[in-house]
Write a structure and sequence with these properties.
Elements: H1 14-35, E1 44-49, E2 52-57, H2 60-77, E3 82-90, E4 98-105, H3 130-145, E5 157-164, E6 191-193, E7 196-198, E8 217-226, E9 229-237, H4 239-246
Antiparallel strand pairs: 1-2, 3-4, 3-5, 4-9, 6-7, 8-9
Helix pairs in contact: 1-2
Length: about 250
């Protein structure tokens, strides 16, 4: 049996808040891949995290991909540029359309200068055991929701998508030196800052929401709040999922 780090975080700096989010995102990724049968369930083992049993992939390639992806997310979170992170499950080829989105909204996280991510918060941090208890409750809530989700077809794939904050003029971390690529247009939204609109059409004043955002059915999971840590999570089932079932 494997075990993640079980130390309860002390949320006294922004860096600690981001580290706690990365920890939970890692566990959530493994859990969703297991529960939604993206990989054979026999390829997962039981581990412990947040004082509860969780699933962890045994495949070294999958573990490495998740570790690298979460590390890349953490780097952007420390810049205070992200408003949400989504685990997106895609249909098999040839359509490869998004079927489910597991959204982790970090829009309410504090925004601090990069030089102060290790600076202690003025407010006293919450008890160290508080956040793991809420993570455990969130995983329990997720486990009750999986059975209510419509089934997925075989051979689905997944990816990790980030959304930038509107304020502060955050720019996408694209380029040959970063691990990120632009998401497909259906998973993008218009971003506004000081009256300017950032999207591929460069059309000031327009509102543009990707066709795969919002979904045909949205299920709230849980809000997690502990000191400066404020996370909202929900599941979106895309209309393409139900169209695939009808087809």
């Amino acid at each position: 049996m494997a075990s993640y780090n079980v130390e309860a975080p002390v949320l006294d700096t922004y860096h600690a808040v981001v580290s706690a989010f990365s920890d939970f995102l890692t566990v959530a990724l493994h859990t969703i891949l297991y529960e939604r049968n993206i990989y054979p369930q026999a390829s997962f083992l039981t581990a412990r995290k947040f004082n509860c049993p969780v699933k962890q992939s045994r495949h070294l390639g999958v573990c490495k991909w998740i570790q690298d992806a979460v590390t890349a997310v953490e780097a952007e979170m420390l810049k205070c540029t992200l408003s949400a992170v989504s685990i997106v499950i895609h249909a098999p080829p040839p359509t490869s359309i998004p079927l489910e989105r597991y959204v982790f909204s970090t829009a309410a996280f504090p925004s601090v200068p990069s030089s102060e991510v290790l600076t202690l918060f003025a407010a006293r941090p919450p008890p160290a055991a508080d956040l793991p208890e809420q993570f455990r409750a969130t995983l329990s809530r997720l486990s009750t929701l999986y059975s209510s989700l419509s089934a997925l077809p075989s051979d689905c794939s997944f990816t990790l998508v980030t959304e930038l904050r509107d304020e502060g003029g955050a720019q996408p971390p694209l380029g040959s030196t970063t691990p990120w690529i632009a998401a497909e247009p259906g998973l993008q939204k218009t971003r506004k800052n000081n009256g300017n609109v950032y999207d591929k059409e460069k059309a000031p004043g327009r509102t543009k929401i990707g066709e795969y955002l919002g979904g045909a059915k949205t299920t709230p999971v849980r809000n997690v709040e502990s000191g400066a840590f404020s996370l909202e999570m929900w599941i979106e089932e895309g209309k393409g999922k139900f169209e695939e079932q009808l087809g």
